[in-house]
UniProtKB/TrEMBL annotation:
One of its GO terms (molecular function) is transferase activity. It is found in: Endoplasmic reticulum membrane. Pathway: Protein modification; protein glycosylation. This is Dolichyl-diphosphooligosaccharide--protein glycosyltransferase subunit 1. Keywords: Endoplasmic reticulum, Membrane, Signal, Transferase, Transmembrane, Transmembrane helix. It is a single-pass type I membrane protein. One of its GO terms (cellular component) is oligosaccharyltransferase complex.
């Protein structure tokens, strides 16, 4: 037992001495995969140090096939959010590098710790791809067996949380244990940098997952800002079930008998602001028929129930709109206004393939600045003509586009703009002037004599 420990220490020292590119050593790596929903989540707790110099930044390597489905990567240290910068792509090792900027450098010979959070969409592949209404939905998940790191690692473990205890197959690389819905690998000792790409794609799990594979293939969200009382929001959604495709027909009777075991969903839960007003919804085919709204101290929840459930491969489209009082989301400081709204959809648990966000500002807004806490794919600006707008100016519209959006992207973003004080009276003056001109024209028309023949003159006695 003592000899084994000595060999382990010697192996670790050899790795440390042979590491030429970086002197940072991962003292401990604890990785957790959460596969309970259709969006896979990864959390990695890392303890690291450097005996040669202070550590100011930490590099993270994501395999390219996972990086293509990476929706969001964040890092924390002592509950402080750290900046993550995308680096170069290493085609030789087939990884994408990211750099985590540490707020406080880790001193030479000391230990630091960070937590990495990653979210991946469409990495749970239905297998088989088609099932009948009575069959269970099975999914396949594939990843590296160990955590891929550009640094040598002294010890690491991996835990996989599954959606059910029904596991058809899983890779068995000792030490491994399956207890209920948790699969545990490790601990593994003395793993070299990149570890032969950490046994490339050797972690395979095939299990049952009936979580709603709720995916919005397209989402167009419009926020219209008015300084006269309300800010209106409308979402136009193309919704699909991206799980195993339903094979055969649909039976309402069978669905009512085994609804709890069915791989489908029929309820959507929208999380709205607590001061929400004028909530409405509609769809093209009348599938969404019933709703229930309840208010809490912090938010309003709207439950939408469909007449027909959505199985794998089924799609639908609907509209959802609401308003909030202007003073709750728009702050003013002199002639500068700051709008703060949520970025993504209000539907809980939905992933979005392609999101387009439009913020329609009042006519006359200028010096527009947008602050989003993460990178977007496209940011632009256009104009739109609406009621009481002038033909030459129109309302400025901020357009943001982003692909592969998950629930963690639904955080507040801000739009700051300047609006001259005199412009706020433009619309009331246009209305007053319009009505005044209308009545003047009516007065003139009623008093105008357009007859061609003149009547006989009255005789004077």
């Amino acid at each position: 037992m003592r000899a084994t420990a000595v060999l382990s220490v010697l192996a670790t020292l050899a790795l440390c001495m042979g590491l030429s590119e970086a002197a940072i050593i991962n003292k401990s790596v604890k990785r957790t995969w959460d596969l309970t929903r259709h969006v896979a989540r990864s959390q990695v707790d890392i303890t690291f140090g450097d005996d040669e110099a202070a550590v100011k930044a930490y590099d993270v390597a994501i395999p390219l096939y996972l990086d293509e489905r990476l929706a969001l990567l964040t890092a924390k240290a002592d509950k402080n959010v750290l900046e993550v910068v995308k680096g170069k792509r290493d085609t030789e090792k087939e990884v994408q590098l990211y750099t985590v900027q540490l707020k406080t450098p880790v001193a030479k010979g000391s230990e630091g710790s960070i937590k990495l959070f990653a979210h991946y969409s469409r990495v749970l592949v239905p297998y088989p791809a088609e099932i009948t209404q009575a069959e269970d939905q099975l999914v396949m998940f594939t990843a590296q067996h160990l955590f891929v790191s550009p640094y040598a690692t002294t010890q690491q473990t991996t835990r996989v949380k599954l959606a059910s205890s029904r596991v058809e197959q899983y890779s068995e690389l000792p030490p491994v244990a399956l207890k209920g819905t948790t699969l545990t690998y490790g601990p593994y000792e003395a793993v070299e940098a990149y570890g032969s790409l950490a046994f490339a794609k050797s972690l395979v799990v095939h299990f049952k997952n009936h979580a709603p594979f709720m995916t919005m293939t397209t989402l167009v969200k419009e926020i219209e800002v008015s300084l006269w009382g309300r800010v209106s929001t409308e979402e136009v959604v193309d919704l699909a079930h991206t799980g195993a495709v339903l094979k055969g027909g649909f039976s309402r009777f069978d669905y009512s008998m085994v609804q709890a075991q069915s791989a489908s969903f029929r309820q959507l839960t929208a999380v709205l602001p607590k001061d929400v007003l004028n909530v409405y919804y509609r769809d093209q085919i009348g599938n969404i028929t019933t709703s229930r709204m309840r208010h809490t101290a912090t938010r309003t929840e709207l439950e939408l129930n469909a007449r027909f459930p959505l199985f794998g491969g089924w799609k639908t489209q609907y509209y959802l709109g609401y308003s909030v009082p202007t003073q709750t989301v728009l702050m003013r400081s002199g002639g500068t206004y700051k709008l703060e709204m949520d970025f993504s959809t209000c539907i809980d648990g939905a992933a979005v393939d392609d999101l387009t966000l439009k913020v329609i500002l009042p006519e006359g807004a200028r010096n527009i600045k947008v602050n989003v806490p993460f990178a977007v794919d496209v940011q632009g600006e256009t104009t739109r003509q609406t009621y009481l707008d002038t033909a030459l100016v129109g309302r400025p519209v901020v357009v943001l586009q982003k692909q592969n959006v998950v629930a963690q992207h639904n955080v507040p973003f801000t739009v700051t703009f300047e609006y001259p004080g005199r412009f706020i009276y433009r619309e009331p003056l246009l209305l007053v002037g319009g009505f005044f001109a209308f009545f003047v024209v009516c007065m003139v028309l009623f008093r105008l004599d357009l007859s061609l023949a003149k009547g006989p003159k009255a005789k004077v006695h």
